[in-house]
Amino acid sequence: MKKWKRSARLVDMTQQLMSHPHRLIPLSTFAERYQAAKSSISEDLAIVHDVFREEGEGMLETVSGAAGGIRFIPRISDERARKLSERLCGELQNPARILPGGYLYLSDLLGDTALVRDIGCIFATVFHDRRVDAVVTVETKGIPLAYATAGQLGVPVAIVRRDSRITEGSVVTINTVSGSSKRLGSLSLSRRSLQEGARTLIIDDFMKAGGTVRGMFDLLEEFRAEVVGVGVMAESRAEERLVDDYISLATVDEVDVRERRIRVKMGTLFHGRD
Amino acid sequence: MKKWKRSARLVDMTQQLMSHPHRLIPLSTFAERYQAAKSSISEDLAIVHDVFREEGEGMLETVSGAAGGIRFIPRISDERARKLSERLCGELQNPARILPGGYLYLSDLLGDTALVRDIGCIFATVFHDRRVDAVVTVETKGIPLAYATAGQLGVPVAIVRRDSRITEGSVVTINTVSGSSKRLGSLSLSRRSLQEGARTLIIDDFMKAGGTVRGMFDLLEEFRAEVVGVGVMAESRAEERLVDDYISLATVDEVDVRERRIRVKMGTLFHGRD
User: Fold this and answer.
1) pLDDT tens, position by position, B166-189
2) Which of A121, A259, A271, B116 has a CA positioned 20 to 30 A from the CA of residue B140?
3) Based on the domain organization, do B206 and B94 belong to the same domain?
């Protein structure tokens, strides 16, 4: 049996905890792995906890009792969340993003795996106490953010499709009307992809009037699922907003196609906190 | 200025390295952060490296010279990759997955964020020395695996769309013929989403005859991009295979709809290694 030094134990423990966010690891698992007394393990965990907390990178939660153990809750500090959102706002203001019709090109940001992970960590921090069972998003561009968030929350993802696919098996479909362009559409979710009564967190990349998110509320109602939060990377101003309670990291105030100017401010997450 | 003990330094260093796979961190960054001599930092890094390597969780790569530093390369051990693939094969054999037409329901597996991360880690390990610039996938179900892989490789993702969307800006589109069902389709990729000449890794969830992957080769040729690898979670037997060189974790040999039986064996990654 391998003999672990404390220094090696600390590295390995940090690695184990970070690799399994929100998973409860019994103290005895660590004690056996490192062939060490539980008291030593507890001292190690206290060190890990202190570093995570001081650096704003997360915390360790202790669950006592026979089914107890320790779990890593990833967090992001207010300061880092603000810096990331400022960077996001700066990126969004780049006039090269302007597409015909005043749409914004976002695929480069959503393709940036480090940025996506950080945004997921912000959402996971904001919604960590909502007892989320599953993250729900709609194809296509919201998917990376949904996985980044769900991974940090340690829960699965269910993807709503805009068309129903044979590979989804039996699905529930509802018809929708886009709030901004009044286009008709449909949203489908596989029956098997969500437990009835699940507490769901809706994550998407961009919200205009909120017709899609509103449609997801209606669709989730068919699963008797509860929506415990809505997080979008960015939103744009809309005359009529179909969703009231949501968190955004950035608000696109104006896209002036002729002047090629985009005005962006910090999202609702930071409202009333400046 | 905060005074760091070695134990705290080890925890924080592990956290920093794991949070930024493949990112080169100069030794001086650590020396400043911890207010410690570079020799102490080097000793710490040696401890981290040894633990990662012994546990098969990755390695630290040292780049010397003025622009040098240290980077974390995530790895998964052969043993864990095999165990994960065995688990995947077991899951795939569940007859409840059989859908009309012999399709398999996979969305539960692809919604499992921990499994997706692990599969991404296998692909990142297999393809770590191919100098990948970007991971390319096709919507929808391949997306989570592509992000999990790209995140571990520290590169961006480009998503090929089956229809061209206004939010993608200028796109390159090609027409495709499905190899298995001979259906017509199209694949589009935003011009901006990939640098010309990029070394790309194609990741997808399931391959039958390989028509979609073949189409992606053709599409990527329009970007003068090179395909340096193809990884799919699972493949099924096809009479005519349009792609030769690929890695799969599981091979679906037979789906017997009437008998409700699925036969699955380990994928090409393990061929010749049993």
Assistant:
1) 888 899 999 887 766 777 889 999
2) A121
3) yes
